[in-house]
């Protein structure tokens, strides 16, 4: 395969030699069809009170899944940006399993290759292959030969050393059936009184569909639209739409510049919406999370200035000294009452924006309810 150099400095595009994964394609067709059917059931076939109950279950299960992905597979296991005690690791593993986004081991392997070779042939969801490919299309293909080559060069011993990851990997399918399907379906059935099939389409399929797209936008939108204040030479961008939909994961230019920051953002939750960072800080209060890693404010400022200069002189960046500039976590900062109110309001609004899909469904439901 020929790797073509683009106008900047990245090789692109490994379209060839990748087998289509028909099982994934068929599953995604079924998933979206049943999700649309679930929306139809919600809007046209049930009273408002039952609709609200379904929305509560979908949102609750969706949020739990987000904690498993963002606080677990991403910040804890992929990046080792903090450490967690056993109860928290078990909780995050179960939350992660209910999202049906592969095992933590595979998720982290893909993600580490994504970071080290972002937007090249080896990147599993290379954004230079187009918006659709980076969003969901990459799942319809086997990984590129370049991906497998690079994956072999990385060390995943730290992941394999964690008994929680090994346990999830070994019992993935039974755990998946319980956490992804049975628990949400029966919880919906118990709380709403709807049939198991209705709950399967809403609490399992629709929830899964929405949750997947919330994850995917980090790979697609946040690699294409937004600002690049920390490193203008890379594709990942800070995007507030993604920040809200992915519970604080949209500071993506920052995150690719400082991937080992446990808050995946410069300001944590004290100044910007970052509910997962608030969760990790909360866990840290009880000792469940510890060794929270974060660069000092001076180092971030220095890195930003250096990044701006890069545009002119095209110097390579050098992060060799980054680990020597860690500060303690932001939990120790004094916030003040007024700021706390602002933060709470921001997070409440952020959580509403996060459920925009469900809010739109509710708006449609109200329209239908009013005119019927
Ligand atoms: Zn990325
Ligand atoms: Zn990452």
TrEMBL record:
Q: Which UniProt keywords apply?
A: Fatty acid biosynthesis, Fatty acid metabolism, Iron, Lipid biosynthesis, Lipid metabolism, Membrane, Metal-binding, Oxidoreductase, Transmembrane, Transmembrane helix
A Pfam family this protein belongs to?
FA_desaturase
Q: Name one GO biological process term.
A: unsaturated fatty acid biosynthetic process
Regarding the membrane, this protein is recorded as: Multi-pass membrane protein
Cofactor(s) this protein cannot do without: Fe(2+)
Give all residue intervals belonging to the Fatty acid desaturase domain.
67-259
Q: Which GO terms describe its cellular component?
A: endoplasmic reticulum membrane
Record carries keyword Iron: yes
Q: Could you tell me which InterPro entries the record lists for this protein?
A: Acyl-CoA_DS, FA_desaturase_dom, FADS-1_CS
Which locations, inside or outside the cell, does it occupy?
Answer: Membrane
- Where are the bilayer-spanning segments? 20-43, 55-74, 171-191, 348-371
The Swiss-Prot or TrEMBL record annotates one GO molecular function as: stearoyl-CoA 9-desaturase activity
Query: Domain annotation text?
Result: The histidine box domains are involved in binding the catalytic metal ions.
Q: Which family does it belong to?
A: Belongs to the fatty acid desaturase type 1 family.
- Protein name per UniProt: Fatty acid desaturase domain-containing protein
Which organism is the protein's source?
Answer: Dermatophagoides farinae
């Amino acid at each position: 395969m020929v790797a073509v150099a683009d106008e900047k400095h990245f090789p692109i595009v490994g379209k060839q030699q990748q087998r289509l994964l028909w099982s994934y394609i068929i599953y995604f067709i079924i998933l979206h069809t049943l999700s649309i059917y679930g929306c139809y059931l919600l809007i046209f076939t049930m009273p408002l009170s039952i609709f609200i109950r379904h929305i509560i279950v979908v949102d609750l299960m969706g949020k739990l899944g987000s904690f498993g992905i963002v606080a677990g597979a991403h910040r804890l296991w992929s990046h080792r940006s903090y450490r967690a005690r056993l109860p928290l690791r078990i909780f995050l593993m179960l939350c992660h399993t209910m999202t049906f986004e592969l095992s933590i081991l595979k998720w982290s392997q893909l993600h580490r290759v994504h970071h080290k070779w972002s937007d090249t042939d080896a990147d599993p969801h290379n954004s230079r292959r187009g918006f659709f490919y980076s969003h969901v299309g990459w799942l319809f293909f086997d990984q590129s030969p370049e991906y497998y080559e690079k994956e072999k060069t990385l060390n995943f011993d730290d992941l394999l050393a964690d008994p929680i990851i090994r346990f999830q990997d070994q019992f993935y399918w039974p755990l998946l059936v319980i956490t992804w399907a049975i628990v949400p379906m029966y919880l919906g059935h118990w709380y709403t009184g709807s049939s198991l099939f209705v709950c399967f389409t809403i609490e399992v399929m629709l929830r899964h569909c929405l949750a997947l797209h919330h994850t995917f936008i980090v790979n697609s939108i946040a690699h294409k639209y937004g600002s690049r204040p920390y490193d203008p030479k890379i594709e990942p961008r800070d995007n507030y739409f993604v920040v809200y939909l992915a519970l604080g994961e949209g500071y993506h230019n920052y995150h690719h510049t400082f991937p080992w920051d446990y808050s995946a953002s410069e300001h944590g939750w004290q100044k910007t919406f970052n509910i997962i960072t608030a969760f990790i800080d909360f866990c840290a209060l009880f000792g469940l999370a510890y060794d929270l890693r974060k660069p000092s404010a001076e180092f971030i400022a220095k890195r930003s200035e250096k990044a701006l200069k890069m545009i002119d002189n095209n110097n390579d960046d050098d992060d060799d000294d980054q680990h020597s500039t860690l500060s303690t976590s932001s939990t120790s900062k004094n916030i003040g009452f007024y700021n706390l109110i602002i933060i709470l309001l921001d997070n409440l609004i952020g959580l509403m924006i996060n459920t925009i899909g469900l809010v739109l469904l509710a708006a449609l439901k109200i329209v239908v309810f009013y005119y019927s």
